[in-house]
Design a protein that fits this description.
The complex is a heterodimer of chains A (about 425) and B (about 230). Helices cover about 55% and strands about 15% of the residues of chain A. Chain A starts with a helix and ends with a helix. Chain A is an alpha+beta fold and about 425 residues long. The model of chain A has no long low-confidence stretch (mean pLDDT about 85). A six-stranded mixed beta sheet of chain B has the order 7-8-9-4-10-11, sandwiched between helices. In chain B, strands 1, 2, 3, 5 and 6 form a five-stranded antiparallel beta sheet that branches. In chain B, strand 10 and strand 11 form a beta hairpin. The relative contact order of chain B is 0.20. With about 230 residues, chain B is of the alpha/beta class. Chain B has seven helices and eleven strands. Chain B is globular and about 50 Å long. The chains are: A alpha+beta (about 425), B alpha/beta (about 230). Chains A and B meet through helix 1, helix 14, helix 15 and helix 17 of A and helix 2 and helix 3 of B. The complex binds adenosine-5'-diphosphate and magnesium ion (MG). The site of magnesium ion has 2 residues of chain B, from helix 1.
């Protein structure tokens, strides 16, 4: 009952000063709009840039590094176990890049509930032959479907159909940079030389463009079996196992586990690309700071307008108190006014923020480096809207607190006597 | 229930700004229910100050104040507001209506705050009170659209809405012409006679005072006749 009267009075006061209240609410609307748009846009950019790396990089990569054995024969001999053995000039022996027992590993990893998917790979170091010149490069033999499922292979194949890798024997999809250098077109036969010196003709069926030029200039894709044949290996020859997890954060831990378990090298994404998180978090920090600054400015606007309103409405406050409204009633009235401005302003800000984001989302944005992107990126994360309205309401509440307290302490005797 | 609406004893009041002055000196009297009391005295003798104390708006005084048998000392702001709301009606010299609201809403507000009746019933009562004072055709006007005399009639209706123990007025006709002042006085008298309400009215109109039931005269902060 009491509550209803307070809202009634707040409404009447708001109405009496409609212009100022609208200005105050527009201030809030503006800040929330900018806050949401800024965060959506920045976050969209972050996702895009992270995606450049994340989409193309496994969370965990299992492989065998060519390196000297850490245990030399003399260490295994019990006769010398207490001695301090010095061996100079150790060389790696039998540089086998193959992951042993990979069938069992694939099976085991495939059953791990934390794992989203796995894609086996064979990487072959090669030379692309262009007349008398040889360009160094690498051909990745991939399980085409797994590669597409985990790393969106299709998005990066800009010419040709990625599925043809499985269907056309001895086919290859070459990097755009490689193609430019070789003047190769789809349908051409190019020849490449393997590390062992075998020269192999392959049919170009498409180009791919990753957005990272360094990769596009050296890398090509072929099917697993094509590369295995190229290297003269059996079907079980695999040099890399790429793993994607359900949660990226677990990667270092799981990598360590697999390293122990399978006795292979395991590299997690965080270690391999430690720089990419820094960029994201700095951009996010900037967006939040700007947004919150805008909100604080809007808060001062509300503070000013409420103060002015209280100054103008001294008579009203005095009469309310004289007729039986308590200081806390008066405080509630002015807090209601502040919160109304805050809620209406924030809700409008959410709508305008969405509209502005949608507008930015429709602006064309074409760049050769990002074949999958045609407009500016926007992340429509509902959390931004939630944070926006929460902050909007909290700011207006705080901005209303002091003026409301001031109103509640107005002494009616002073006002009535002052007439 | 006692018959005493307001009981005061030994009330002293000082102002300290700019220098200490003793405004009310040992004021004490009783006002009985159903009385129509006028307070007169020279300008500056402390009439308004006394009324603000009696209406519980000013709590900074020495002495005893009892309203409807309840001691007013040491109560919280919320309690005093409640007492003002329920037991006291106030009519000011400058008709203090809320310009943001209609005439009807002005009268209803104290009752809405009290919250004892549903708002439809409050509205019906407010209309009845306004009609009583000849304001029936103005109920949907805004307060600032009324003349001075009309505003004062609305203010009286508002003071009555919660059926208070006592109605106080600080020179309620002081700002009105003779004719309107007389109308207001007639309403006051009617209130006392027909509704057995208690009235305590500060006035500097001797004619008004003599026509009321009892006169309390003040001089320099003291009661000299009561
Ligand atoms: N807030 C105040 N501070 C100092 N002196 C005051 C204050 N209010 C009133 N006074 C003084 O107290 C005296 C009584 O004032 P008041 O009660 O308004 O007189 P009345 O209503 O009888 O004309 C006057 O001398 C006035 O100047
Ligand atoms: Mg006075």
């Amino acid at each position: 009952m009491n509550f209803k009267v307070i809202i009634d009075i707040a409404k009447a006061l708001l109405h009496a000063r409609l212009k100022q209240t609208v200005v105050a609410a527009v201030g809030v609307t503006f800040s929330i709009t900018m806050f949401i748009t800024l965060l959506s846009f920045m976050s969209g950019l972050n996702d895009l840039l992270d995606g450049l790396i994340l989409n193309r990089t496994p969370h965990i990569r299992l492989y065998n590094e060519v390196k000297p054995s850490t245990k030399q024969p003399v260490d295994l001999n019990p006769d010398f176990s207490l001695d301090y053995n010095v061996i100079r000039s150790i060389k790696p022996s039998g540089g086998r890049l193959e992951i042993y027992n990979n069938v069992a590993i694939l099976k085991h990893v495939g059953k791990d509930p934390r794992v989203l998917g796995i894609a086996p790979k064979v990487i072959a170091q090669v030379f692309y032959n262009i007349g008398a010149i040889d360009l160094t490069g690498a051909v990745h033999g991939v399980d085409v479907e797994a590669e597409n499922k985990l790393f969106f292979f299709k998005d990066y194949v800009v010419t040709g159909n990625y599925r043809d890798l499985e269907r056309v024997p001895n086919s290859i999809i070459i990097g755009k940079g490689v193609a430019d250098k070789m003047l190769a077109n789809p349908g051409d036969i190019i020849s490449i030389t393997t590390a062992k010196g075998d020269i192999i003709p392959l049919k170009v069926i498409g180009f791919f463009q990753s957005g990272i030029q360094e990769i596009d200039k050296v890398q090509s894709y072929a099917s697993l079996s094509t590369v295995q044949k190229m290297l003269g290996k059996t079907e079980s020859y695999i040099t890399d196992i790429q793993i994607k997890l359900h949660t990226l954060e677990l990667a270092p831990q799981v990598a360590e586990e697999y390293r122990q378990l399978f006795n292979v090298d395991a590299e997690d994404l965080q270690t391999a690309n430690s720089q990419f998180e820094t960029g994201s978090s700095v951009r996010t920090l900037i967006s939040y700071s700007v947004g919150i600054t805008l909100l604080i400015v809007a808060g001062f606007g509300i503070y000013n307008i409420l103060n002015m309103m209280i100054y103008e409405k001294m008579d009203t406050i005095a009469i309310l108190k004289a007729t039986g409204f308590s200081g806390s009633d008066v405080r509630k009235i002015f807090l209601t006014i502040a919160l109304t401005i805050g809620i209406v302003g924030s809700l409008a800000g959410m709508v305008f923020g969405f509209l502005l984001s949608a507008f930015i989302d429709s602006i064309p944005f074409n760049t050769a480096a990002l074949p999958t992107v045609s407009t500016y990126p926007i992340n429509y994360n509902p959390n931004f809207y939630l944070i926006g309205i929460t902050f909007g309401i909290i700011t207006t509440y705080l901005a209303g607190l002091l003026p409301a307290r001031k109103a509640s302490t107005v002494d009616p005797v002073v006002i009535i006597r002052g007439k | 229930m006692s018959d005493i609406a307001i009981h005061t004893k030994g009330i002293n009041k000082y102002f300290h700004d700019p220098k200490t002055i003793h405004v009310l000196k040992d004021v004490g009297f009783d006002i009985y229910k159903g009385e129509f009391v006028s307070i007169i005295g020279k300008s500056g003798c402390g009439k308004s100050t006394l009324l603000y104390i009696l209406s519980t708006m000013d709590t900074d005084f020495e002495g005893e104040l009892t309203i409807d048998g309840q001691n007013m000392k040491g109560r919280s702001g919320v309690e005093l507001a409640r007492i003002r709301n329920e037991k006291i009606g106030f009519v000011f010299q400058f008709h203090y209506l809320l310009n943001e609201f209609s005439v009807l809403k002005n009268v209803m507000l104290p009752a809405l705050k009290l919250g004892k009746l549903p708002s439809e019933q409050i509205e019906a009562q407010a209309i009845k009170k306004l009609e009583l004072f000849g304001m029936g055709q103005h109920i949907h006007k805004k307060a600032h659209q009324l003349s001075g005399g009309e505003k004062q009639r609305v203010a009286i209706a508002r003071a009555l809405i919660n059926d208070p123990i006592i109605i106080m007025g600080d020179e309620p006709s002081g700002n009105l012409d003779k004719k309107n002042g007389k109308i207001v006085f007639d309403f006051f008298q009617e209130i006392v006679q027909n509704f057995r309400q208690t009235l305590l009215v500060v006035t500097h109109d001797p004619e008004f005072a003599e026509r009321s039931g009892r006169v309390i005269e003040m001089d320099d902060g003291r009661i000299v006749r009561s």
